[in-house]
Design brief:
By secondary structure, the protein is α/β, with parallel strands linked by helices. It has helices at about 15-35, 40-55, 65-75, 95-100, 120-125, 145-155, 205-215, 240-245, 250-270, 300-310, 340-345, 360-375, and strands spanning about 60, 85, 105, 130-135, 160, 170, 175, 180-185, 200-205, 275, 285, 290-295, 350. It is built from 12 helices and 13 strands. Helix 3 crosses helix 4.
């Protein structure tokens, strides 16, 4: 039987906008009509709402998730001579912000199941120069914060939680920001809560750090010509806050739909060989920013090509760990140093899991993946995989 192959993108931002278009248009036009685009009351309201959702006392809106990382490090006075322990299996912003401040990113390997920072490997990397631990809550699942928290406490180290992919997640029934001194969020358009461009936020319950961050994001001032710190220009603008404010009430439902899509895939792939489904630890509330499989036997790239030929978009996050990237080899990394991160980079493949995914689309994705593994991968493009 011949069917027309469906088109299944990793994200459908047009569909998300169309579902909320009247509200988003009204909110954005209201800002434009007001002529006020900076740190307005609506920005402050969004900061408060997101901080409450994530379990923090304060939210400091900034220009991007990358800036949120940079400003968090700046707030802790991290710079030359300091070391920050983090993962090599992450988006580059986690590491580049450490390097930009003249500090040294120190890598520790990841857990084979969750892809998150391994506490035992982290403990091995602590020195007298260590100034912070920076775990990444990758793909929407929090790292082992009980173990990392005990480790950090024993050495009097702050934790900066990179939750760029993990808004709405929880660990041991506590929201994401309760487990770190500073927690960063990204609102890049494809995130679970996405703006209409770049935007980010730092969360903290430390009032002194929150106040310092408000200075740092505004050239080290409070909007006057008195500069208390050396800062940068990184403010969450009112237009982005307007878009995020419309979307925020929908985030719990969107995250729930992502979990439902993930559960569908889990069931669909239960008997599929050479495919390892995502691991969700029982203490975690996973938000499935990505649904990431491990493809064994060196078949990842062939599967990805097979799916692409049939209209299914996929992602490889990330194709090479950072310790092997040209820009970061100077920080002391060579092949074999972080085997779990290296193995993950060779095996991971993310499938579409967006909340806008239709039932027909997710069934088509599952059927096509199974067709590849069950020997039907010679079917021509457009053939029904079932």
């Amino acid at each position: 039987m011949k069917d027309t192959a469906l088109n299944v993108p990793m994200a459908d931002l047009r569909a998300q906008y169309q579902a909320l278009a009247p509200e988003i248009d009204d909110a954005v036009l209201s800002v434009l009509r007001s002529g006020r685009f900076g740190l307005t009351d609506s920005v402050a309201a969004l900061e408060s709402d997101i901080a409450m959702l994530c379990g923090a006392e304060h939210g400091i809106g900034v220009n991007s998730g990358t800036d949120a990382l940079l400003l968090s490090l700046m707030a802790l006075d991290i710079g030359p001579g300091d070391e920050v322990i983090t993962t090599p299996f992450t988006f580059v912003a986690t590491v580049e912000t450490i390097a930009l401040l003249g500090a040294t990113p120190v890598f520790a390997d990841v857990d084979a199941g969750t892809f998150n920072l391994d506490p035992e490997r982290t403990a091995e990397k602590i020195t007298r120069k260590t100034k912070a631990i920076l775990p990444v809550h990758l793909f929407g699942q929090m790292a082992d914060m009980d173990s990392l928290g005990k480790l950090a406490g024993a050495h009097n180290l702050p934790i900066i939680g990179d939750a760029a992919q993990a808004i709405g997640c929880a660990y041991c029934d506590q929201a994401v920001a309760r487990h770190s001194l500073l927690t960063i969020l990204s609102f890049y358009p494809t995130k679970n809560l996405g703006a209409a461009g770049d935007a980010g936020m730092v969360l903290t319950s430390d009032e002194t750090l929150a106040e310092k961050l408000r200075y740092l994001r505004f050239h080290g001032s409070k909007g006057t010509y008195h500069y208390k710190y050396v800062g940068i220009c990184s403010r969450l603008d009112a237009v982005q806050a307007a878009v995020l404010g419309v979307k925020l009430p929908h985030l719990p439902d969107w995250n729930e739909q992502r979990r439902a899509n993930a559960a569908f895939y889990d069931t669909a792939f239960a008997e599929t060989p050479d495919l390892i489904r995502p691991c969700c630890l029982p203490q975690n509330v996973h938000t499935y920013h990505q649904y990431t499989l491990r493809i064994r036997g060196g078949q990842r790239d062939a599967l990805r090509a097979f799916l692409a030929e049939r209209g299914i978009d996929t992602g490889v996050f990330y194709p090479q760990p950072l310790h092997l990237q040209e820009a970061y080899v100077g920080y002391g990394g060579k092949p074999g140093d972080y085997p779990e991160a290296e193995r993950a980079s060779a095996e991971v493949l993310s499938l579409p899991v967006m909340p806008e995914l239709t039932e027909a689309q997710r069934e088509y994705v599952a059927d096509t993946v199974r067709a590849f593994f069950h020997g039907k991968n010679h079917a021509s493009k457009g053939d029904s995989p079932s």
